[in-house]
Amino acid sequence: LLARQELRESSARTYPRHLPIALAEGSGSFVRDVDGNVFIDFLAGAGVLSLGHNHPEVVASVTRQLGLLAHGLDFPTPAKDAFTEAQLSMLPPELREKMKIHFCGPTGANAVEAAVKLCKTATGRGDVVSFQGGFHGSTHAAMALSGLVSAKRNVPNTMPGVHFFPYNRAEPLEQALTDSLGGIPPPAAVLLELVQGEGGVVPAGPEFVRRVRELTRDLGVPLVVDEVQTGCGRTGTWFAFEQYGIEPDVVVASKALSGIGMPVAVILYDAALDTWEAGAHIGTFRGNQLAFAAGVEAIRVIRRDDVLGNVRRRGEQIAGRLAPLTGRPGVREVRGRGLMWGVELADPVTGRPATEAASAAQAHALRHGLIVELGGRDDCVVRILPPLNVTAEVVDTACSILVDAITARAA
Ligand code: PMP
């Protein structure tokens, strides 16, 4: 199956290059390949499957909705109304009243585009500030806004007017924005990930975030937090920004909104920014009723089963299980928040990113029944994004495999 696909599909595929399996079916935190091998799935659809594969109650709700209405363009529908209510109810009370929702095309990248367009429209400014190491998607502007050079080096003339600043250091940005010799005009938006996911699981420091928020507020620049990966409970609160005590102007969300992989993407934004005219950001697939039904049910299950509490407890468990890796030769750092963890590998002699060791650890883990992801500088960070309802037993088994894989392959 893999070989046949190889011949027919474009060479742009990514995951099967490092994880050479063909998927047949999934259940909870497990996935089975076409040859009958079962894996613990700590890639979980790149962080999409917050309730794991095929959560039965969410599947039932999607199936019910399929019998009613599958696609609704941007007409109001009961499913969309319930989804909107459910999403707004997850915001902190101060934001619940003042935020609006805009339904974007089905991907995170589309919602990033919408956020930037909205801020340009509202401010009348053209430039955007983004951070080194960030990732915001593969569409043209989202790619241009991403720090990861590998994603854009073969595309000439990416979108102009993007200014990159160091992540986790506020002074260079402050200087550029406030010093008359600083060099950049006030931007339309500052776009920030609170934990850089693709960039290698790098949490933003609280002081950095506080300063960026202060600066942007003082200068009247909308702060857009890209919570495509960190959102919907991944870091232990519904959105990661809650842990920083800030109020963003725009929140971008997608991946885990439906809990089980029905595509949907939104921006939640301060109603004061709503300067859009009809048709300003449209798209055929903005009315996925199956995703709406799934998202409502996912939130019901997440509340009922205290899934956010589970994220925090399993996160602490992972921190404890991965702690022995810290200080080992070849391991530069173990980092994470909630259920988003990464182990950065470096050559013990040169200190350079240990890309091959990371790739070997990933392959080792796969052979022992665990699917993990890579990211960060030259893909030297081994990453996990478990389902948020993963059990302590599965975490235990997975951590044993991961620690063995890294111990065997690093250095
Ligand atoms: N923003 C962030 C923070 C992401 O992690 C991703 C996907 N990895 C995206 C945007 C793009 O989302 P999508 O792949 O659905 O376009």
Automatic annotation (TrEMBL):
PROSITE patterns: AA_TRANSFER_CLASS_3 (PS00600). The lineage of its organism: Bacteria, Bacillati, Actinomycetota, Actinomycetes, Kitasatosporales. The keyword Iron does not apply. Its EC number is 2.6.1.76. It comes from the Bacteria. Pathway: Amine and polyamine biosynthesis; ectoine biosynthesis; L-ectoine from L-aspartate 4-semialdehyde: step 1/3. Belongs to the class-III pyridoxal-phosphate-dependent aminotransferase family. CDD domains: OAT_like (cd00610). Keywords: Aminotransferase, Pyridoxal phosphate, Transferase. InterPro entries: Aminotrans_3 (IPR005814), Aminotrans_3_PPA_site (IPR049704), Dat (IPR004637), PyrdxlP-dep_Trfase (IPR015424), PyrdxlP-dep_Trfase_major (IPR015421), PyrdxlP-dep_Trfase_small (IPR015422). The keyword Transferase applies. This is Diaminobutyrate--2-oxoglutarate transaminase. Pfam families: Aminotran_3. One of its GO terms (molecular function) is diaminobutyrate-2-oxoglutarate transaminase activity.
